Amino acid sequence: MSGERLSLLIIGGYGTFGGRLARLLGDEPRLRLLIAGRSLEKADDFVAELRSPRGWAGRLGGNDLGAWLQAVAFDRDGDLIEQLTRLRPDLVVDASGPFQSFGEDPYKVVRACIGLDIDYADLADSTGFVAGISGLDAEARAKGVFALSGLSSLPALSFAALAAMAPQFSRIESVAAGIAPSAHVKIGLNVVRAISSYAGKPVAVLREGRPAAGSGLIDDMRVTIAPPGVAPLASRKFLLVDAPDLALLPQHVPGLQSTFTGVGTEPQALQRLLGLAARLVRLRLLPSLGPFSRVLQEASHRFALGAHRGGMFVRAAGLDRDGRRITSSWDLIAEGDDGPFIPVIAVEALVRRLLEGIRPQSGARPAAGELSLADFEAAFRRFKITSGIRLDYEEEPLPLYRRILGSAWQQLPPALAAIHAGGTRLASGRARIERGGGLLARLVAGVIGFPPAGEDVPVAVRFAADGDSEIWTRTFGGKAFRSWQAEGKGSDRHLLAEVFGPFRVLLALVPEGDRLRLVVRGWRFLGVPLPLFLAPGGDTYEEERDGRFHFHVEIGGRLTGLVVRYSGWLVLE
Fold first, then answer.
1. Is this structure's pTM higher than 0.90?
2. How does pLDDT run across 75-91, given as a tens digit for each residue?
3. Under a CB-based contact definition with an 8 Å cutoff, are residues 124 and 99 in contact?
């Protein structure tokens, strides 16, 4: 360390990813942060922004900076030895890129660091660059320094998630991973250039255990990202991207049969246009999408339509220790503007470990497996980021609610778990019922068969298993109505689908303390999708109170007003 502080040089420090890393580490008083780039003026402006009260949501600002910040000029094509010797960093983090276009000597920064006994890490997403850094391993070991490449979502975080799921398997046969950025993320030009470089061109994957050529931004798979206990992202298609995982997975997972890494952007209509453009490249009607990078970036910014949420998934399938077929999925959802920080969390975790005296083993290698999922989860707690693992046994279907909730089932209070334990069962209790007075509300209530208003009404609910679904027959004071519940399929996967007459309502199951909240995420009329803003909604939840199951159901909409509201309690018989 340089004096009492760890000196960290961030190449591209005022760029998209380098800037986020500086914001995450700026509160650490044991750091000397060198914000580096070709333009000293831009580096100065960025440091000034960090010093302002708005620099990082008030955490960095005024005189409470924590880290010692300095703007410096750094040219990766200049005299690297002179620049590094003058700046004297303990660790260099390359957050520039695109690493796919570093020319004939892509590792010149890495070799310069190793030669001067400086540790190195980067955020590279280039398969060739990340995999090839191992060629410098002997040199780095001899010098006693580390050089880690790919400390980003892929492969550092994806491999950490896979390692957390691996103990469930005796053999992993397929692995797929994907990133779904929020539509409101301002994607950097270097990221667009990297993606454009392989659009419509061969991407090396595994199929049936053999090397095969996929098509960049053309091959796809549909995935619903749904961490247990969180409202899932809208189902979307992920287009194949060239990520380091594709080269590294066969080396780490013996007997692997298939691989896939993808990106699923919103709006999906814009992604479909990108896929069509990639097909023009594959047909050799265009040489590359590279020249259109700025246009593609501008389009992604201009058409920022969709939920202010992003996500990621890693999915593995194979056999468990008893030879049963299982699928395990690690899913992540980030709310608002928190998702863009995920790609730099691995470097932040590495730096904080260094400050505690925990060094990686010397040598040059990809960062796959360098950090544990616990390292990432500790950082997630600073953000609105939720992740979790689902485990599905193909031959042993679980009860409906347990299947949808995954590991979040463990959060349910005993009374709720008992009600949703599966099988045929009967519960009874008392309820209070309110009805809407509007004409349309009365019409909808009559079609479905909702009971009339009443106080302290006796209620009984019969739950009947019907294959992998359930039929709920609710009887309020002699007036009965029935609904059918099942897990959504296809684009509705991980949602509870409840059918009332001609209506199908799609609900997310979200544990919240002692409550299980049911959040409307879509609806259909005779199978036809209807606008979400017109969907029947309201405050609907189940909870345990005094050891007893309580329910509160509210159904209404913009067009109908309140249709029905009923609340009460049930006890299993």
1. no
2. 988 999 999 999 999 99
3. yes
What sections of 127-237 are H helices per DSSP?
127-132, 137-143, 158-165, 189-198
107 vs 111: CA distance, rounded Å: 6
Cα distance between the two ends of the chain? 68
Nearest-angstrom CA–CA distance, 356 and 373: 19
**HSE, side-chain direction, 13 A CA sphere, residue 467:** 5
Q: Which residues contact 412 (CB under 8 A, 6 or more apart)?
A: 405, 420, 511, 516
Q: Looking at residue 53, what is its pLDDT?
A: 65
**What pairing do the DSSP bridges indicate for beta strands 515-525 and 503-512?**
antiparallel
Residue with tokens 């975790």: 349
Per residue in 84-142, pLDDT (tens digit) is 999 999 999 999 877 866 768 899 999 999 999 999 999 998 899 999 999 999 999 99
Q: What is the pLDDT of residue 510?
A: 94
CB 151 within 8 A of CB 347: yes
DSSP code at position 399: P
pLDDT at 369 over 70: yes
**Alpha carbons 97 and 124: distance in angstroms, whole number:** 7
CA separation for the pair 205, 222 (Å, rounded): 17
DSSP per-residue string spanning 130-151: HHHGGGGHHHHHHHT-EEEE--
Task: Using DSSP, state whether 15 is helix, strand or coil.
Answer: coil
